[in-house]
Amino acid sequence: MAVTLAHAEETGQGVRLLPTVLSGQSVHLLKEPPVPSLLHLTASARRDSFSRRVGDVFATAWREAHPDDPYVLRDLAADPVPHITEAWTELCDNALRDQISDPARLHETARTPAQREAWAIVRPLLDELLAADVVLIATPMYNYSVPSALKAWLDQVTFPRVSLAPRRFVVASARGGAYGPGTPKEPFDHQERYLRDFFQGHFGVADTVFVHAELVNARLDPALAALRPEHDASLAAALDTARTLAKDY
Ligand SMILES: Cc1cc2nc3c(=O)[nH]c(=O)nc-3n(C[C@H](O)[C@H](O)[C@H](O)COP(=O)(O)O)c2cc1C
């Protein structure tokens, strides 16, 4: 039986999935969805955000191209996912010990009341991830890396040897500085590197595409005022790329 997540509401900014706990012990999750579907995650602590703008342009273009296909928006900043608990680590230990890597069998790792509580948090997150074939992550760079809101989600949905191939990942990002090839700060880009390496190394997703709006701090920091035209160009290019890219997904 395939799971269809039907508890959704129109928010004006897209369809938001409501927390859903599916009943039944044997749930077969879709590995290769028959229709295109988009899971759109946002992670910026601010609403008026550049990563949101880039991500929204992708999502809008995608939805125009796929008017009848499922779209789910989850705002990890406004509606934070809790950090994993000790019981969550036990789910992971049980999966490793019993060699459970099929997502349809992961529920078998929840055996104690505390583990079932941990699983009740994981399951809706994992269901909507597995039901998507395109995952769009709109995220800022925070402290050379990703916001803890995004990391908390990644911790919750990551289990040993669970592959997400052939899903496709797109990251819409904003950062205060410039980290492109040849820039002095290139070696400090642990945002793209972390996400790219993790998606490839753990999830088996090799072709994550990154779209960055850079030098956002030039809008505020007088010391960076001379770089404002470069920021404007970077933002315009990111919005354009996101719009164009969405047509291929
Ligand atoms: C907590 C925090 C940490 C940040 N760390 C960095 C950083 O390490 N490097 C950087 O270039 N910009 C950094 N910035 C600037 C943001 O990346 C920049 O403001 C970006 O536009 C934020 O994305 P948003 O517009 O989607 O909120 C940081 C901003 C905040 C709030």
Automatic annotation (TrEMBL):
It is an enzyme of class 1 (oxidoreductase). FMN binds at residues 44, 49-51. It catalyses: N,N-dimethyl-1,4-phenylenediamine + anthranilate + 2 NAD(+) = 2-(4-dimethylaminophenyl)diazenylbenzoate + 2 NADH + 2 H(+); 2 a quinone + NADH + H(+) = 2 a 1,4-benzosemiquinone + NAD(+). Its EC number is 1.6.5.-, 1.7.1.17. Residues 38-222 form the Flavodoxin-like fold domain. Binds 1 FMN per subunit. GO terms for molecular function: electron transfer activity; FMN binding; oxidoreductase activity, acting on NAD(P)H as acceptor; oxidoreductase activity, acting on NAD(P)H, quinone or similar compound as acceptor. Its cofactor is FMN. It holds the Pfam family Flavodoxin_2. Keywords: Flavoprotein, FMN, NAD, Oxidoreductase. Homodimer. Belongs to the azoreductase type 1 family. Also exhibits azoreductase activity. Catalyzes the reductive cleavage of the azo bond in aromatic azo compounds to the corresponding amines. This is FMN dependent NADH:quinone oxidoreductase.
